[in-house]
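subagent[fold] <- orchestrator: predict structure for attached chain, return tokens only, no commentary.
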Amino acid sequence: MTEAVPRAASFPTARERIFDPPDELRRLREEAPLHRMTYADGHEGWLVTGYAAVRAILADPRFSSRPEQLHSPIPQRAARPEDMSVPPGFFIRTDPPEHTRYRRLLTGQFTVRRMKLLEPRIQEITDACLDEMEREGAPADLVASFALPIPSLVICELLGVPYEDREKFQRDSSILLNMESSLDQVRAAMAHLLTYLHGLVMAKMDHPGDDLLSGLIEGGELDDQELSGIAMLLLIAGHETTANMLGLGTFALLCDPGQLAAMRDKPEVVDNAVEELLRYLSIVHVGPTRGALEDVEIEGHLIRKGEAVTLSLPAANRDGERFEGGDTLDIDRTAHGHLSFGHGVHQCLGQQLARTEMRIAFPSLLRRFPGLRLAVPADQVPLRSTMAIYGVRRLPVTW
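subagent[fold] -> orchestrator:
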């Protein structure tokens, strides 16, 4: 067992370049795949930066996702574990067998086959957004006109949430994902969103529709509280992650004309390009965090029962031992195996939906506006540095 353990002073968050994780994460990864780290609440745990170690921990059932096992590496979220409760049905914060039960009920809704059936509708939504952009004329904010409405409308239709209520759930989602939100603000936003979704669930119990929530209600295995928690998780994840990939991904392409031209003009590279953008950008830039349920040895280091481990997906996805030249965006790269959707039993349920949206949206945008370019210098684009999901707040473009 290795006794000499390298140490990280704290979780690195300061970015030196727009599209790259903090240089300190690279330095730590090159020094060792695991580092001892003091969490914001004083807990002594681990920071994991190496690809193999991150993947191993994500796949290991001896590491828990339950909130009472976790500690935050971010000072603003340094609540006590007992303060980090989540609603019933919020299955990413559960372990098997509870997690298995929820996933079993939902997995069939997000298969590759089902996502294939959604492609014509996603194309319609994308084209409608592009039509409106064209009518409004340049310049435009690509986030408000394109990146945010496409996944928001898709997930609303899938779940059966009225799209006209988007301002409510987008506002609450933003508070929940803002790492500078206070604990009181987080609790209030969660309560507000759950109240809204519980009302929607109760209405669907009386008047079911042709949507995912109605189907879960008719299945009869979940109560109204569980249904509300599932709806909250799927609604937030279903629009926030893809919206930020579309915004930040377009920004990255606009800063690299060769890669942009290939995405626009070579349909055969689109699938690879989406995977490479997911790897290169790694928008989940803080965590995930797990808690050890027993003593576990990883890469020669003993992680003791009760210790938290924070996994850096951006560092792992740039690990040169897994992705040669990983700090370079190369849409011809075979980037399969990246960890942007996680790994193991908690691998993102909606990953096929996100892939489908991106495979349609990126080429459609670039073909419609072949002269698309930034309307401001790159260093003037406002970033979502304080959000748990990285991206751009606005993306001013012209064509």
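orchestrator: received. Logging for downstream: The CA atoms of residues 45 and 372 lie 46 Å apart. The chain has one domain: 7-398.
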